[in-house]
Amino acid sequence: MSANIAALLYLVAGVLFIFALRGLSSPATSREGNRYGMIGMAIAVATTLLTHFPSFGGLLMIVIGVAIGGGAGAFIAQRVPMTKMPELVAGFHALVGLAAVLVAAGAFFAPRAFGIGDANEIHAGSLVEMSLGAAIGAITFTGSIIAFLKLSERMTGKPILLPERHTINIMLGVSLLALTALFVGTQSGVWLLLLILASFALGVTLIIPIGGADMPVVVSMLNSYSGWAAAGIGFTLGNLALIITGALVGSSGAILSYIMCKGMNRSFISVILGGFGGEVAGPAGGKETRNVKQGSAEDAAYIMQNAGKIIIVPGYGMAVAQAQHALREMADILKKEGVDIKYAIHPVAGRMPGHMNVLLAEANVPYDEVFELEDINSEFGQADVAFVIGANDVTNPAAKTDKTSAIYGMPILDVEKAKTVLFLKRGMGSGYAGVENELFFRANTMMLFGDAKKTVESIVKSLAH
Amino acid sequence: MTDSTQQLLEKAQAAAEAARHLAEQAQHYSDELAHTAAAAAAHGLAGGAIDPFVFRVAIFAMAVFVGYYVVWSVTPALHTPLMSVTNAISSVIIVGALLAAGVEGMTAAEASGSWWANAFGFIAVILASVNIFGGFLVTERMLSMYKKKG
């Protein structure tokens, strides 16, 4: 196969990847898009194997590698519960990052196969591209591992603040530049190794100060990084499929980070600098002593049975309690009784972009009952009940009124405009931003304490009576 | 009536004159450009061809823009599948892993280097495969759950 045909086939693969993302503009076309992505991947792999036919031993290793990796991947894909998607995505980012590092190292050891020069005479441009791919890949790897540990709660979700952390990061950043220069100048693998190690360290120090509530931004950002790492390697290989994919994924992650930051009214820089949600912010005033109105599942069932329109607001607490199936069951009963049910999703609800939508889809909630903040916010005024399950900060009116609040300016769901607000919460604790929610103390609010899933199940029981 | 026709004619003539002038200038610039390009080619770039790197940068820049518009059109409800599918497609990095895993040292000096390349390539093939299969299949699984009313 000629190099030109190969380049064209890689281009075709890249275009198919664009179609894969294009399909996601609507759930109706999304699965078709995913197929295009798979075909693109098959074309890219086949083209590489045909143009650089591996040695017998090499082919054997490739087959074994694909069997092990593919088997593990397929197994994970079938088994992972939908509530664990954020961890899974973070884990996958780590793999892409590490693969980029390994491919860069492979290119360094076998430059001729990659068409970037001979051993010890690699083109300077390729060395720079290789360093970029390796460094970004390494940052993605360790950063994603930290994100994975935080999301799966194997590590505290609270920000971990190293002393002089900004100085450490700046020094690591400068050393990356110096090591790249040394590597390009001397072509010695030692510098490449040090570069990779310094990048590993930077990945850790960048992500540990960022708190659990900011994880949607972090996951999106690491998504973006994994794309830029792939693009860096794509330049080293001169491979169009990789360059196009890297650019697509890089900009996709960047846009998602932007959307998440906007959803929290925080600048990207302030998220990256970290430390948010560590100390309790907001107006100080000692311990809260006001009373809240507490209700039972029977009360909630009674209120909802007599309602005409209910808007359900799910949050991370629903994911933790795995309450989505019980919730849908409750909605089904109410719908049969003629109640109008809609779902309202805040952009940063959950731990990653679109997290709540997936959970509701898993519980068979039709996607045309699920609305984004800007499409439904005006409807709370006509709603009889706002049913808030496991969400807190995204409903806090302090974001609109209290300039001293840590979440001031964040767009919120106007649940307080509904006639009755039902709050399902584990306890009286404040949300991840560490801010007290004024809504809990209002006359039209009723609190239902306990595990969200159990509470919803008892509501279902009361409704059935 | 004839007056205004006269005026129009004059205007058209003036415009034609201006266009001719511009064309001359453009000719001049393009000559100069060709001259510089030829000089540049003679200076360094082999055979007067543009370095492939420039094309790659161009494609990269275009793809960033394509990505920008395509991703903005993704419905927020599908942001999680978007992340998992971008994850899967970025594993096209497997093409690099395949090269490294399949390489064979031609000379004795290359043999040790290719051994390392094989080892790194093998691990990278495993990692990328986890992502490719895991990413596409989990996306498929998620997307199959999105259903319309009724």
Radius of gyration of chain B: 29 Å
Which two chains have the most extensive interface, and how many residues on each?
A: A-B, 119 and 86 residues
Biggest sheet overview of chain A: 6 strands, parallel
Broad shape of chain B: flat
Order of helices and strands of chain A: HHHHEEHHHHHHHEHHEHEHEHEEH
Overall pLDDT of chain B: 82
Structural class call of chain B reads mainly alpha
Report low-confidence residues of chain B grouped into runs of 5 or more. Answer: none
Low-pLDDT sequence parts of chain A: 278-287
Strand order of the largest sheet of chain A: 5-4-3-6-7-8
Strand content of chain A: 5-15%
Helix content of chain B: over 70%
Q: Would you mind describing this structure in some detail?
A:
In chain A, α1 packs antiparallel against α2, α8 packs antiparallel against α9 and α13 runs parallel beside α17. About 2% of the residues of chain A have low confidence. Chain A has 465 residues and is of the alpha/beta class. Chain A is 59% helix and 8% strand. In chain A, β6, α16 and β7 form a beta-alpha-beta unit. The mean pLDDT of chain B is 82. With 150 residues, chain B is mainly alpha-helical. Chain B is built from five helices and no strands. Chain B has a domain of 75 residues. Chain B is flat and about 85 Å long. Chains A and B meet through α1, α2, α3, α4 and α8 of A and α2, α3, α4 and α5 of B.
